[in-house]
Specification:
By secondary structure, the protein is of the alpha+beta class. The chain is built from nine helices and eight strands. β1, α3 and β2 form a beta-alpha-beta unit.
Length: 297
């Protein structure tokens, strides 16, 4: 194993660092769960509060007219004859977007509005300027003509640029389809206004759309990752502890039970000599000092 890889592996498998990573993943899971609960609460409040007031497209102000859960309600002229069908093949499975241009409610279209609707402001007379678009993303590419029922809408009558309809949906970004939509509109000679609005209509109805939105399980995935990392850290810690115990035991002398039979013959266990024997064995020679020195020589 290369030294660099070995050092990196040792650092990444440090139990303390792994426990820290597990803690961070768990904290991210708590944050993701909190965001999901808040989004669910916002949708519930939007259902109880009802839809925002419906305004004409030319009178729409995002800061004022976007309600809870990014909900909008707009009167607009929808040019279904200029609708686009775009395919995002980079997704798995491929996704398809049906996009229809939106124009201001013209003078001819304002007469189609119900009596309780507020009188719309001045509309743009430029037929090439789009004030917004409808977008509906689906997994199946439509084969027939694009009708109002495709978006769950009911036309009130023709206007100057398209059928007048009430749009109720969520203010949504086209995402990966935005560049494709810009290019397709440009090819048709259409230009998006600077303050355009994109609406994803509630095709299945408002109640169904707000109650049955996809719930992300990201917080559960983060909890699972944190649990796996923590278990791995515990396993690495136990393995390191066992290795240290094995090294400590390796320094002890080998023990052979058969040695117990000869333990009585070991010099350590010989009987101690008596005091007389010690004096006799180690007594210096007696006589004059000269003779003692001679004996030592």
């Amino acid at each position: 194993m290369p030294p660099t890889f070995a050092i990196l592996s040792a650092r990444l498998t440090d139990p303390r660092k792994m426990m820290l990573i597990a803690g961070l993943l768990a904290a991210m899971g708590v944050l993701a769960g909190y965001v999901e609960v808040q989004q669910r609460a916002v949708r519930t409040l939007a259902l109880r509060a009802g839809p925002p007031q419906t305004v004409a497209l030319q009178d729409f102000v995002a800061a004022r007219d976007i309600g809870s859960a990014s909900e909008v309600a707009i009167w607009a002229e929808v040019a279904l004859d200029r609708a686009l069908v775009l395919t995002h093949r980079g997704a798995n499975p491929p996704r398809h977007a049906i996009i229809a241009p939106l124009f201001d409610v013209s003078t001819a279209g304002s007469v189609r509005l119900p009596p309780e609707a507020p009188l719309p402001g001045a509309a743009s007379t430029d037929p090439s300027l789009l004030s917004g678009y409808l977008i509906h993303v689906t997994s199946e590419r439509p084969t027939g003509p694009i009708e109002a029922e495709t978006f769950g809408l009911a036309p009130l009558g023709p206007g100057a640029f398209g059928d007048v309809m009430r749009l109720n949906g969520a203010a949504a970004d086209a995402g990966a389809f935005q560049l494709m939509a810009d290019g397709a509109f440009t090819a048709q000679g259409l230009t998006l206004a600077g303050d355009f609005v994109s609406v994803a209509p509630f095709v299945q109805g408002r109640d169904s759309a707000l109650m049955n939105q996809d719930v992300s399980l990201s917080h559960r995935a983060l909890y699972l990752c944190a649990l796996v990392v923590m278990l791995v850290a515990v396993a690495v810690s136990l393995r390191a502890y066992r290795q240290r115990e094995a090294v400590d035991i390796g320094y002890l002398p080998d023990y052979d039970p058969d040695d117990d039979a000869d333990i009585g013959h070991h010099p350590v266990f010989d009987p101690l000599p008596s005091q007389r024997a010690l004096q006799t064995a180690g007594a210096p020679p007696r006589g004059p000092l000269s003779e003692r020195f001679k004996s030592r020589r």
